[in-house]
Amino acid sequence: MDGDWEEVNRLPLPPSGEHAVPTPVTTLAFDNSHELLWAGNEYGRVTSFYGTELTQYTSFKAGEDPVRQILLHDRGVIALCSRSIHMAMRRGPPIWHIANDEMKDLRCMSFTSKGTSEILLAGLQDTMFIIDIEKGTVSKQIPAADHYTIMKRSRHICAATKTGAVNILDSTTFNVIKTWNAHSSLINDMDAQHDFIVTCGYSLRQGQSYMLDPLVNVFDLKNMISLPPVPFPAGGAYVRMHPRMSTTSIVVSQLGQIHIVDLMNVNTSNVRQANVLSYLSMVEIAPSGEAIALADAEFNIHLWGSPNRIRFAELSNPVDFAEPEDDHIALDWSVDTPLSSIGLPYYREQLLSAWPSHMIVEVGAPPSEIDPQYLATMKATEWGGYGRNRRNKKRNQVENTRTAEKAPTSLQAPKFLSEKARESANDTSTEKKI
Amino acid sequence: TQMSELSREVENGRLFRLMAKLGTINERPEYEGDRNWSENGERYMLKLFRDYVFHQVDADGRPVIDLGHILTCLNKLDAGIDEKVSLTSRDEQTTFVVTYRELKKQVMAAFAELQKPSKGR
């Protein structure tokens, strides 16, 4: 982090309704290919913010439970809620949604050895799920060796348990390769990159209160050994590895003290203070390493970076915005206005208005009759009559009025004189034969 | 002349058939409880599009009745062009950016579903 880093922007997470109270950010993620910051709230809603101005871009509902984690994919955004997982395009429309009875309290997910075509889901439950991203289906359910709260993937999948340990899972078989006891009671935050795992956590002090450990624990994945911890007297709450400087980590205290430390040379650190009035609830770093986002307990998102160079993604694609509606000529809503005043845009495919040719349309059937008994019980008003629906038919049920009309055959139509004559002639002819 | 009279009316049938399709799929009570039409389902954008076309309001919230807007939107939907449009839910919580092509695809899928004899949900 350079000398000119500062708070570039701050905005409150939008509340879940016009008159609703603001809710905390439950998860944050920087996009890896667009200038977007993604945030989840307690009600399963995911909202994206564009650029350093943090202009609200899209927003969609991913599920009914708190959003636990957001992963970015080429095709869209994957949002994990406690009991479901949802994938949507960055523009908002859903791609797939999976809910399963065995999904009880999911907390974390990670891409597997198959690049970005598969993810592993886990949580405070005994089952883990493997999801095929292209198909949007559960491809496998496997028993979990432990209950997991955080997952990060580097060389292996690193999964933090709720008891302060980190299980290192093989990213193909998902077997536990090694368990590293990082903190004595629980892990508050973890990151893994290249060859390192870094963690912040709690221990139980004097047997009664949980305190953040005044150090960041470090594990070397290449040699599978723990390294000397990095001292952090203020109490390490959140930690992220710098995405481009492979041995640099950023450690943040609950009250916003930021240290930038080189794991190989822990004595030189760069210190900053974020202006937070309450305590921080989350920290995330952009894939470019040029921005960090901090979420506080007063529902704000703080964006930090160098005002001149701040950007989120290493290589950014342009964000798709709606095109402004073209100015059309003002049309008069009268019978004389031809509907052809505004032409069709250029097209090559079949139009949506094309009506299927196999549908047989029957016209000219008489209207269905209204039950005379029903008419008799109706209350008449100046605009018509109303009464209770007599439930012998469905609402708007179609009736075949043609067959209904043929039914009364007892009544015979009068005959023309000529017809009578022909009939009698026929009668006589048969009589003659006998 | 007859030709000019005719040209005034040529679009009517096409637009009516389009409106008939939209009318048959919108707000059917049997969709109640169908996840596709719920807030995280794929058909939700059709509800938002109906509001976008027909329920425009001005800055004070008064209805704006603009035949030109309706015709423009319906024509773009009919052709299914790649232009993107921003759709917002009534509670202003959900915002999508979708193309007319995507909307057309959803209408076609929803209409095809109605034509199936019985789906047996």
Largest sheet geometry of chain B:
2 strands, antiparallel
- Measured as a percent range, the helix fraction of chain A is under 10%
Q: Shape of chain B from CA axes?
A: globular
* Sheet of most strands of chain A: 5 strands, antiparallel
Q: What Rg of chain B, in angstroms, do the CA atoms define?
A: 16 Å
Strand order of the largest sheet of chain B: 1-2
Globular, elongated, flat, extended or rod-shaped: what is the shape of chain A?
elongated
Rounded average pLDDT of chain B = 87
Distance between the termini of chain A: 120 Å
* Rg from Cα of chain A: 35 Å
How would you describe the overall organization of this protein?
- The complex is a heterodimer of chains A (434) and B (121).
- Chain A is mainly β and 434 residues long.
- Chain A has 3 helices and 31 strands.
- In chain A, a hairpin with a 4-residue loop joins strand 21 and strand 22 (225-231).
- Chain A is elongated.
- Chain B is mainly alpha-helical and 121 residues long.
- In chain B, helix 1 (2-25) packs across helix 4 and helix 3 (67-79) crosses helix 4 (100-115).
- The longest helix of chain B has 24 residues, at 2-25.
- The radius of gyration of chain B is 16 Å and the shape is globular.
- The mean pLDDT of chain B is 87.
- Classes of the chains: A mainly beta (434), B mainly alpha (121).
- At the A-B interface, strand 5 of A face helix 1, helix 3, strand 1, strand 2 and helix 4 of B.
